[in-house]
From TrEMBL:
Pfam families: DUF1501 (PF07394). It comes from the Bacteria. This is DUF1501 domain-containing protein. InterPro entries: Alkaline_phosphatase_core_sf, DUF1501, TAT_signal. The lineage of its organism: Bacteria, Pseudomonadati, Planctomycetota, Planctomycetia, Planctomycetales.
Amino acid sequence: MLTLLGKNTPMCDRLDRRSFLRIGGLAMGGLTLPQLLRAEQAAGVNGNGKGVIMIFLPGGPPHQDMWDIKTDAPAEIRGEFNPIQTKVPGIEICEQFPQLASMADKLTFIRTMVGAGGAHYAFQCLTGQHNRNQPPGGWPALGSVLSKVYGPKDPAVPAYVGLSPKTRHAPWGDNGQPGYLGVAHAPFTPNGDGASDLVLNGISSDRLASRKQVLKAFDRFRTQIDASGMMEGQDSFNQQAFGILTSSKLADALDLENESQQIRDRYGYGEDKLQSDGSTRLLTNFLKARRLIEAGVRCVSLSFSRWDWHGGNFKRGRQDMPMLDQAVSALVEDMENRGMLDDVTVVVWGEFGRTPKINSKAGRDHWPRVSCALLAGGGMKHGQVIGKTNRLGEEAIERPVHFQEVFATLYKSVGINVDHVTLDDLQGRPRFLVDQNKAQPIPELFG
């Protein structure tokens, strides 16, 4: 349940929030829709239609070979890449990212990410939490929170979509879990099991249009859900299934043939091949993410390649970094041209950093003590570097930034005040979205 004005406030006649909103201006229980929205705003929630694109780099990208080149370090630490100047005087990044360098005024480079759990998973980058000592049901991903708090913008479009493919190392292919919020708020996965939900599977549109037949089908669906203990999601399943099947909006957003050749070429194409036990190098997913947000999705998660470079760090960097450079720069440029950049926040990161010392296989090993992240959009103050590591890139010596702080920032960018909003877990206990002792929105981004 969403906490409003410091209380758990059920809607009149036991209606859920989205059912209440559909009533429109009809007065119920003394509240009209405008009054409800004002109450939400006072409670720290403002359903303003903003969105988040979460780009996960499976395996842990090398922070000292991307945004924090250590020119003064010894050769066995410094590595093979050189820094280049960016559009912002005084900020240098790796030479493999010239397109991002040219738009650094629209980006924030975080060089001092701390608090990594140290495990090979997407979980922390999707929830902000460790996967240890979770509440019953588990921590929900950010996209699931947005689905719960705001619901879908359009019944034909899910609130949360995950584009990451299934990977041999399964935790890298995680698109996000709904946790204690329930399966109704799980991401829709058009690249996986959700692909079959885009078609009618042998049912004619005439039959689907028959209200009687639809209700009978949903009754059978309810029975199946009851048997598997997933009661909470039934209304959302019904709405979403019918909306997707009776509208082409989601399918159109995923169909890149509807995009101009010029835009497709700008993003690039990559390759639809899993990189060992990691993800694909599909640059088209970045374009799909923009199209999905434009169609009404609130959060899109995706993964790119495999960054667990215990060997051949610089060879792999010369392959993957220019591709990431092209896709992320195209995404930022495209959203700016479409007037979307202030409303959509982009975050790019992995689960941890890499060792300062290069090993005997020309690789870098796991280093949870510090890592990096890239932020863009969201109406924030960009064109800056946050944090400083020591000479060898071993640890943060100025302005460490915790994963929880980034999540507090992401929530603020979509209109949620983390000091006020709580969601009930499976035991009815209200849970804040971030650890109140660790996390506030990053002040440098909102000055």
